[in-house]
Amino acid sequence: MKKKHPHKKKVSFTKKWSAKLHLWFGLSVGIIVFIVSLTGTLYVFKDEIQNSLRKEAMYVKESSSTPLSIAVLKEKVSLELNEKFPINAVEISLDKNKSYRFSYYEKNKKGWNYFEEVKINKLVYVDQYNGKILAVYDEKYNFFNILKYIHWSLLLNSEWGKYVVGIPTVLFIFMLITGIVLWWPKNKKARKGRFWFSWENVKTWKRKNYDLHNVLGFYASFFALLISITGIYFAYPYVKNTFNLALSGSTEMPKDKEIKSPDSLMVKNASVYDLTAQKTRKLYPTSSSFRIPLNGKNKKGKELKNIPVTIYGEEGRFSERNSLVFDKYSGKLLAEKAHQKLSNAEKYANANYDIHTGSYFGLFGKILWFITGLICTSLPVTGFLVWWGKQKKQGKKI
């Protein structure tokens, strides 16, 4: 006969359903949460590791002579690599001791997985003073790029694969919220054991595992919520539209007006890219680097009517971005869009990637994001062990 406990309080409706949702969501998407968290964590220090490994290719000896023409360098790279795809763009650092980076990038939208979707993704480091190719990296098979696409779409086609990751991420957000509800102590006495581990008299691994899940999950949950929300910002248009509405009062971003070239009838200036680079350096001398498209197409493959140049304010960050538009025939400056003049929604759109990776908050942010990622990676494991322990306990009773 079971003993009655009249003093025992009933579990509230909120906590009861929070426990059920937390368990159901955890068991259904735990493995995907584990994979996405692990790959995201390993990706955090990508720039620091990769820059260290590529140091010899990144730096050149500054010469008293001026750099060779971008068109000449482009031709040298094309002839030496002999790729069937055209060079996509060049990124030029404002630091004269850093090499130019020419990139090849071509996609096949019909490819069902990452390796079929990305036809080519190569990065070529070139000494701008003598035209020597310092290194060629096949970014398609780069460790960090593969990590990124596992994190983004589990290596499935990026257009629909993002939902395979996006849906579990939304459920993970609910798991974080229900986890906080379950963690929340009833009174001051219960609160003491919720903020840190009290293992003086604890000998069983089950209790320690439960505390790891409970305490670490609580501390990581607030940062994990921010990381998750910035993640689904990329995947779901309605999330982006909500941010736009909240920040700028409209669901849609301001659209740039198409500028018709005033010099479309003239012969294209052979030094058009050098003129754009020269003007960009003059207008933004304290920036980190700038990117010039060289194949006459944008990222979606549509023909560019002009030459849009993107200027990055700080190395390894995308939040502070300026843009210039040049005439593709004469190289004349047609438009300028400075970071300061962007709407709040546009500024946030540029900053979302940096917030998601932690780089927006500097090295401290990256360390904090890395620790949070490790904890998020552990939560599906410790959570499953908590559930498994209860199942075994119930089995013994029977």
TrEMBL record:
It comes from the Bacteria. InterPro entries: PepSY-ass_TM. The chain crosses the membrane at residues 21-45, 163-184, 216-236, 367-388. Keywords: Membrane, Transmembrane, Transmembrane helix. This is Peptidase. It comes from Chryseobacterium vrystaatense. The lineage of its organism: Bacteria, Pseudomonadati, Bacteroidota, Flavobacteriia, Flavobacteriales.
